[in-house]
Structure formats: C-alpha cells, structure tokens
C-alpha cells in the first residue's frame, strides 16, 4: 500500500512535535528518552506506581507477545506446506 503525501506530512509533523516539545538537553529525562508519555494511561485497572501490578501486567504482555509470534510462525509453516495459511474452510462446513 502507498501512503499518500498528506499521510507522510502528518507523520513528519508528529515526529517534529515529539522532538521539539520536550526538553532534551543533557542531564534531563528527555535526553534519556523518557518523555513522560505512557502507552497505558493510569486508571482503575492500571496504576504505574504499584510495582506488583506493573510487573504482572508486563509479564502477561510479554507472554501474549510470545504467543502471537509462535502463532504467526505456525501460520508461515502451514502456508509453506499447504499453500494456504488459513486452510480450506469448505472442508469444515
């Protein structure tokens, strides 16, 4: 797929905003890449200050990522062996 010129403009504008909106002078958190943004906003199901909860959620995210990687590798093998990653659904219905 091709990204339209307006899409590239938005991507570059967002990158520029991220670069210039944070103090990145040496010795500041921004210089180390800690921009103060979180992928998961704090709320009732996630509190970044609770070390046990954070550790549990990070471990489950890692496990889910590993499962997804194994799944896609399995689909690659199935596609290589049979020519179809999803199989023929007509055989099952």
Q: What does this entry look like structurally?
A:
The protein is mainly α and 93 residues long. It is 52% helix and 0% strand. It has two helices and no strands. The protein has helices at 5-20, 51-82. The chain is flat, with a radius of gyration of 21 Å. The mean pLDDT is 81.
Keywords:
mainly alpha, 93 residues, 2 helices, flat
Detail the topology: elements first, then pairings.
Layout lengths: L4 H16 L30 H32 L11
Apparent shape? flat
Structural class estimated from helices and strands: mainly alpha
Terminus-to-terminus distance: 33 Å
Portion of residues in beta strands equals under 5%
Helix and strand pattern: HH
Compact description:
With 93 residues, the chain is mainly alpha-helical.
